[in-house]
Amino acid sequence: MIRVNFKSHNKEVICSKGENLLEIARNNKIFIDAPCNGNVSCGKCKVKLLKGKVDTEKTLHIKDEEWEQGYILACNTKVIEDIEIEVPSKLSSSMHGMKIEGSDKKKDQEIFDRAKKIIEDNNFDFKTNIEKTYIELDKPTIDDNICDIDRIERYVRNNLGYDEIDYTVELLRKVPEVIRESDFNVTITYVKKKNKITILNIEPGNNENQLYGVAIDIGTTSVVVCLVDLYSKEIVDKASSGNAQIKYGADVIHRIIYSTKKNGLKHLRDAVIDETINPLLESIYIKNNIDKDNVVSLVIAGNTTMSSLFLGVHTDYLRQEPFIPPFLKSPKLIGKDIGLNVNDSAYIFLAPSVASYVGGDITAGVLSAGIWTSEENILFIDLGTNGEIVFGNKDYMMSCACSAGPAFEGGGISCGMRASNGAIEKVSIDKETLYPKLSIIGDDKPIGICGSGIIDLICQMLLSGVVDRRGKINKDLNNDRIRFNEHEIGEYVLAFKEEYGIENDITVTEVDIDNFIRAKGAIYSGAATLIESLGMDFSAIDKVYIAGGIGNNLNIENSILIGLLPDIEREKFAYIGNSSLVGSYLALVSKEAKMKLQDIGNEMTYVELSVYPTYMDEFISACFLPHTNIEQFPTVKELLENKMKI
């Protein structure tokens, strides 16, 4: 047996000779970022070998100076003797401390209020079918010796007007002691349905004032949990973190592939429930002094893959043509079925999906955006790990999904990272000196660059002449921030190690730029194709709603200049936050909104871009800065022409 000491985690584990280092870390709940799921293609699982020897080899992802410092790829390393490993702090920060919408409480409240107004304007009631009632039962006697549960049913029938009660065996197990503990005065929580109620919880004494629900957005990259008071409909608290499934791959395809391995499906389900959602719930309960048994209703939204993995349902056919999902509508679920840290009988509703790659996060987003009630044509773009687009109004809604990959979350970029402390989120470049000015999350030393920063950077590199419209770095520029390796691949130095006292330079390469250009091209071409399928073009758009994690710091102007978004009037653009979470909240607090969410899932039409005749041509044309047809971007054309004149 061999000992592996993860010094950065103060944890020593035992393994067998020849085991893969990444799998050792995964099996011992030590987070190492592996967007490519360990196939040696992304280079993000770099760790530092402090002591001992391993079976590994240098790859193109490890620079010479990093190799000399002891850096290796965990996925490409087998353990052959006792070793000591350091996991760089930036890998852990990719999981913890992730910046997620909601940090700006004022902006967050405005987004929720806007969505609530849409519901109110459509005369939807903010009512649920869950209630709490304090009841005083007759104490049993020799003459009145009916069983405990019948005693409750008699009270309900005589005093509340319901003919029948339903309950689970878990509820039944609590009844005898709870009613005697409180001298037969108890509070019941129940769901109303015609003349019947289902009792979810029973508590001693009068506790009518505590009744809670939870809205959850399960993103591929991050998870957000929102605790809601079901009486006041107010948000009590929110908590968020990275989705622990990240360690099995950055995107849904890698996770689907991992799910087919031995115990893979269980590992993925445990990661999102036991390692992500339940700890978030527990943190909220402790902070707000709340009993989990008073959490009796949940609405959860995620893409089709996330919803399937959440339930532990086989997902491999999602990625195989003809791309068939295992389910679209939510099955009947209660807390105990899933193992969530809520009341065992809590009702759980999954937002309905539309197709394999348009899931419940998008139907919930459409609910909150109000496309279903709008007279105007709305283009809805969710910029997350997956790129989903909806176009329509109250008469029709068309949707599609783009294979953008994880670039908007920092994936596929050599120095890319998710939006957490140390991430460069905004960039400007002095056109004379080519010196970059960086805005860093946490105002700390830079570690890498996140999606919003990459958009700013590429735009600034284009406008300052560092790159041409193909994304290639200008070899004629004589500047210490521009350099080329032995393969003539250019890179731009965002931060010299001497500037910030960091271990290595932070650079963006032509390969990184090319990866991002393909990602932004997928979004633009997807939107163009979707609108074209209706015989329209971008001039038909009245509003553009941007949702997703990147949106909060997205520079609209820069996004247009690089060809991510269409070059139309800027006042048409608006950021609508985590629309998936907002839509889940609406369905949680309004039974009518939940019904509308189900209708949206049924009514939305899905366009499969991979088989659409003109999509590939459109995509190739969009893989340029901003586009091969510059006439589609008059703003950029004018800027570049003026620059040439100067």
Helix percent band: 25-40%
Counting DSSP E segments of at least 2 residues, the number of strands comes to 29
Content-based structural category: alpha/beta
Percentage of β-strand residues: 15-25%
Sheet with the most strands, sense and barrel status: 6 strands, mixed
Distance between the termini: 69 Å
Label the overall shape: globular
**Mean pLDDT, all residues:** 91
- Which quaternary structure do these chains form? single chain
- Figure out the total of helices: 19
Highlighted features:
6-stranded mixed beta sheet; 32% helix; globular
Topology:
Blueprint: E1 2-6, E2 11-15, H1 21-27, E3 46-51, E4 54-55, H2 64-69, E5 71-73, E6 78-79, E7 83-86, H3 89-93, H4 105-121, E8 130-136, H5 148-160, E9 164-166, H6 169-181, E10 185-193, E11 196-204, E12 212-218, E13 222-229, E14 235-242, H7 252-259, H8 264-288, E15 295-302, H9 304-311, E16 333-334, H10 335-338, E17 347-350, H11 360-369, E18 378-383, E19 387-392, E20 397-402, E21 423-429, E22 436-440, E23 448-449, H12 451-463, E24 482-484, E25 490-495, H13 497-500, E26 506-509, H14 510-532, E27 543-547, H15 556-561, E28 573-575, H16 579-589, H17 591-603, E29 605-606, H18 615-622, H19 634-645
Parallel strand pairs: 1-7, 9-11, 12-15, 15-17, 18-27, 20-29, 21-23, 27-28
Antiparallel strand pairs: 1-2, 3-5, 3-7, 4-6, 8-10, 10-11, 12-13, 13-14, 16-17, 18-19, 19-20, 21-22, 24-25, 25-26
Helix pairs in contact: 11-16, 11-17, 14-18, 16-17
